[in-house]
Design brief:
about 450 residues, mainly beta, Methylamine Dehydrogenase, Chain H, four-stranded antiparallel beta sheet, 4 helices, 29 strands, globular
């Protein structure tokens, strides 16, 4: 017994499985960009690409020195067309608006840690219209906290880092949580073992009701080795503390974090495995805190800063490496790895990359795409900045990310298609659920996972 719409989709799926030719899976190696993003009013020294996030058909990009006190923009991920420019109602010079950015469910959150004597704010905008909806501030805000240095948004929550908060000592740091229904604060996370100088909240990420945050100057494994925490978004209860098995002085573990489906990725860009500040990324079980793997670049070299930024999408780890030299000194790159076993999957390089672009300064990934900022690219003048969008290798039909294609994935696609969930929005035009999405799913399903 089934609803009529569900039966029709099931029958269509079976029919297409008999007739659609499998699409070739992408392999490893160098992966070039699909398109390049530039703001319509970009200018020298804007540093567009300082922050970036992607959610389905939209990419949001921050320009920390654009406009008055910073700027942010929204683009169509498929065409590169700018669709909105985000401007805070009370922005002033020095706000650093665009230091951090997050986009989810039609909303964009933009961090402005320099606002109000560096007490900091996060502004919420409508992703389609660019209209400001709300301004988030800490309930116990103090000048100098730098609330908004990091921001993440998913599952009805916004997490905001304030690395200079002083609850556990000078610059110990904290993370605040807000819910998106009313944009009110529902919690504040400060670890019981927090200490002066830890800088908790320099990075945050959220998925499945879990928040992870970096404290890159924590000293548990040595001076400024760093740490990361996982806590419950709804209760602010600590779930686990993440420490590297081989942490060393000044590794700065926790400068970047990402979380997806119970896996946490933590960047340690001053780790020295491939030379001074070559960098690394560690993978953990979010609930137990157990280390799963350590990632390094196969062609890593000193000062590459592998792990400066990190993202996760559908079991693929994206690692920003702004000091890589493939397109010239400090041109930058991003590496791809399988989150389940640490196997390398490829390397992202802009087609027009050049020296001192620092591509990989910011990275993001969602729905089979990756985006990266090249903060010092010069297309609109010195240090004006740019961003790029790439297609990730992987297995688009593996909707539950378990590495196996089966009826669970078919049912997930059908449910997502009926509900107009972005998980089933696999083909252009994005935002429209039609036979093109079904065709991409079936092709990927028949091709199998790499």
């Amino acid at each position: 017994m089934c609803k009529k719409t569900t039966c029709v989709i099931r029958f269509s799926l079976v029919g297409l499985m008999l007739h659609v030719i499998p699409a070739a899976a992408l392999g490893g190696g160098i992966i070039g960009d699909d398109l390049k993003l530039l703001p319509g009013d970009g200018a020298a020294f804007d540093q567009f690409g300082y922050s970036i996030d992607i959610d389905g058909p939209r990419v949001a990009v921050g320009a920390i020195f654009g406009g008055t006190g910073g700027a942010a923009y929204v683009f169509d991920a498929a065409t590169g067309t700018q669709t909105a420019e985000l401007v805070p109602a009370d922005g002033v010079s020095g706000d650093a608006f665009g230091t951090s950015i997050a986009i989810d469910g039609g909303f964009v959150a933009v961090g402005s840690p320099g606002h109000d004597a560096s007490a900091g704010s996060v502004y919420i905008f409508d992703a389609d219209t660019g209209a400001q909806i709300a301004e988030l501030v800490a309930g116990d805000r103090v000048a100098g906290d730098n609330f908004g240095t990091s921001v993440a948004m998913a599952g009805g929550f916004v997490a905001v880092g304030a690395p200079f908060d002083g609850d556990m000592g000078f610059f110990s740091g904290a993370v605040y949580v807000f819910e998106t229904a009313t944009w009110t604060q529902v919690g504040k996370f400060v670890p019981a073992d927090g200490e002066s100088g830890d800088r908790l909240g320099v990075s945050v990420a959220i998925d499945g009701g879990r928040v992870t945050a970096g404290a890159y100057l924590d000293d548990d494994a040595g001076n400024n080795t760093g740490a990361a925490y996982v806590f419950d978004a709804a209760t602010a209860a600590q779930v686990s503390k993440l420490l590297p098995d081989d942490g060393a002085t000044d590794d700065w573990f926790g400068t970047s974090v990402a979380i997806e489906n119970g896996v946490v990725a933590v960047g340690s860009y001053q780790d020295d495995d491939n030379g001074t500040d070559s960098g690394s990324v560690y993978l953990y079980d979010a609930d137990t805190g157990a280390q799963i793997a350590k990632l390094t670049a196969g062609d890593g070299a000193e000062f590459d800063q592998f792990g400066f930024t990190v993202a996760l999408d559908r079991g693929v780890v994206v690692v920003g490496t702004p000091g890589d030299d493939d397109n010239g000194p400090d041109s930058g790159s991003a590496y791809l790895f399988d989150a389940s076993n640490g196997d390398p999957l490829g390397k992202l390089l802009p087609g027009d990359g050049t020296f001192n672009d620092f591509f990989g300064w910011a990275v993001a990934a969602d729905n089979g795409r990756a985006a990266g900022g090249a903060v010092f690219d010069g297309d609109n003048g010195s240090w004006s900045g740019s961003a790029y969008v790439f297609t990730l290798p992987g297995c688009p039909a593996d909707l539950n990310d378990d590495g196996v294609l089966d009826l669970l994935d078919v049912n997930a696609f059908i449910a997502g298609f009926i509900a107009h969930d972005p998980i089933a929005d696999l083909a252009e035009p994005f935002g429209v659920f039609d036979l093109a999405d079904l065709g991409v799913f079936v092709s990927s399903f028949l091709a199998g996972c790499p």
